[in-house]
Design brief:
six-stranded mixed beta barrel, elongated, alpha+beta
Length: 412
């Protein structure tokens, strides 16, 4: 076998230009696969982080029917006590109570439809919270408010303006109050950027007659996205959770969950391109090499070399060509993804040289950067697949070689 490999390597070096072109085709295809895998890995991670961070957590608790009706009176009773018990669950990392209520907001005469969000501002400044990264000095007082950046721009609202809020309380009463804008906020949630007025939870409870109640408890677990099912099972055993709707992030956003599951299809498509490139490169190289060496192969057969030995030589050439090509592509592809992972890719700047734009998908605002990365398993399909494809692509040239007639081959 070592001698067969030496002969295979020597034969590949006979026509270096053709071998180099075949290697380049295979390497470029492998680079494309790794670049796509890295981008998809980074995109999936960013999507999951966005969905299970401030958007919806790993699980949510609501009153039955609230998600469908958004009625202000569909509330979680005695939310402080329930929240304390939820936070005591060993698999719970963070839990936040929230209120969402539609209202009209007006600075002067013209009103704007808004969504008032009552949140625990101090708690939600932590990693993954709705106000992640907000400076402590930016937290408003009891009757201050933060408003979404898009709403502020469209309504002409500035910091220091006083706005009137008008809505409906949970008991059917008229809810109204005056709040002072203390900050303009850009959150990962497109709804809050465009229509959000964010208040302290206690202030929102007072305005909308919801003392001690909330619409949602947003929960993140220690097991991450994969531990959501176990987290929900633990939450359903919490005292006081009977009769409440408790759902995982997959149940809350099934369309996004399905989209993420199908993200691997893109990688398979590009992997198919690698196999086609490898098959074309190997088959072309082996066929040309076989026809160019017909006389030599016929002489070897006449001297007693068995057809099986020549078949092994041809197959070895194909395997060496494929593995060398995918190895070069892997080195270059890994280097490319490492660079992209360090520098990051901001999709919102594609097509614009001046500034980034906001892109919202299913309520999630894409204003950040994707950091591609690779796992060790991402490299294996290229090596294993190209090796197999190389052998298959070389079968025809190998069969042609095995069926050569020595005398006829030497005369050609």
């Amino acid at each position: 076998m070592p001698s067969t490999l030496r002969i295979a390597v020597r034969n590949l070096g006979r026509n270096r230009r053709r071998t180099a072109l075949a290697l380049a085709a295979i390497a470029l295809a492998q680079i494309a696969v790794l670049a796509m895998d890295g981008l998809m890995n980074g995109w999936v991670e960013a999507s999951l982080e966005g969905m299970t961070g401030p958007m919806m957590g790993h699980a949510q608790i609501h009153a039955p029917g609230w998600r469908e009706e958004q009625a202000p009176d569909l509330v979680i009773e005695d939310v402080d006590a329930l929240l304390a018990r939820v936070r005591a669950v060993p698999t719970v990392r963070d839990a936040y109570a929230r209120i969402y209520s539609p209202a009209l907001a007006a600075r002067d005469v013209e009103g704007h439809a808004v969504v008032v969000a009552g949140v625990e501002m101090t708690a939600e400044r932590a990693d993954g919270g709705l106000l992640e990264g907000l400076d402590a000095s930016a937290i408003p007082d009891a009757h201050g408010a933060l408003i979404g950046a898009t709403l502020a721009r469209e309504a002409g609202i500035e910091v220091g303006d006083e706005i009137a809020l008008l809505g409906q309380g949970a008991d059917g009463s008229l809810a109204n109050d005056l709040v002072t804008v203390t900050g303009i906020l850009r959150t990962p949630l497109d709804l809050l950027n465009r229509r959000g007025v964010i208040l302290h939870l206690e202030t929102a409870q007072e305005i909308f007659a919801m003392e001690g109640r909330a619409h949602e408890i947003n929960v993140r677990g220690t097991g991450g996205v994969d531990g959501a099912d176990a987290l929900v099972a633990a939450l359903r055993r919490v005292d006081g959770a009977d009769g409440l709707e408790i759902l995982t992030w997959r149940e809350l956003a099934p369309e996004l969950s399905t989209m993420l599951e199908f993200s691997g299809v893109y990688g398979l498509v590009v992997l198919l391109i690698v196999f086609i490139a490898a098959a074309a490169g190997v088959a072309n190289t082996m066929l040309m090499a076989t026809f160019e060496r017909r006389r030599e192969l016929g002489m070897l057969l006449a001297l007693g070399t068995t057809p099986g030995r020549l078949v092994r030589v041809v197959l070895s050439e194909a395997v060496v060509l494929g593995i060398l090509g995918v190895a070069v592509g892997t080195i270059c592809g890994v280097a490319l993804v490492l660079y992209q992972g360090h520098a990051g890719i901001d999709p919102t700047t594609w097509g614009s040289h001046d500034e980034s734009i906001d892109v919202a998908v299913n309520g999630l605002n894409w204003g950040g950067t994707i950091y591609p990365y690779l796992r060790a398993v991402d490299v294996l399909p290229g090596f294993l697949g190209v090796t197999l494809v190389s052998v298959v692509a070389a079968l025809w040239p190998a069969v042609v070689t095995a069926r050569l007639e020595p005398v006829e081959a030497m005369r050609s």
